[in-house]
Amino acid sequence: MEHRHLNHSRYTIAAIDSVITRGEKADWLELMEAAKTDSALLEKIDRVCHANAHGDFDADMYEFWRQWLVQQGSA
């Protein structure tokens, strides 16, 4: 899936948000694999999740990612 903010090979904050909210399973797995080797990416995911964890219909997806970060020892 091509994400609205991912028009290059870097994961920006907006691209991460797009993957989390609009991505398919394959997109999530790709982000997970990239984050396992890039601590800066783990920090970006954490920022996205904290900023969006409250009050909207996507909160469950952000919570899933927050829990994944905990499992990675990053949150």
Strand-residue proportion: under 5%
Could you state the order of secondary-structure elements as H and E?
HHHH
Number of strands: 0
Instruction: Tell the overall outline.
Output: globular
Structural class: mainly alpha
Q: CA-to-CA gap between the ends?
A: 27 Å
Overall mean confidence score, pLDDT: 86
The quaternary state of the protein chains shown equals: single chain
What's the tally of helices? 4
Ranges where pLDDT stays below 50 over 5 or more residues in a row are none
CA-based gyration radius: 11 Å
Strand count, sense and barrel status of the largest sheet are: none
Helix content: 55-70%
Essential attributes:
75 residues; mainly alpha; 67% helix
Tell me what you see in this structure.
This protein is mainly α and 75 residues long. Helix content is 67%, strand content 0%. It is built from four helices and no strands. Helix 1 crosses helix 3. The relative contact order is 0.15. The mean pLDDT is 86.
What does this entry show, briefly?
The chain is mainly α and 75 residues long.
What's the SSE blueprint?
Blueprint: H1 13-22, H2 25-36, H3 39-52, H4 59-72
Helix pairs in contact: 1-3, 3-4
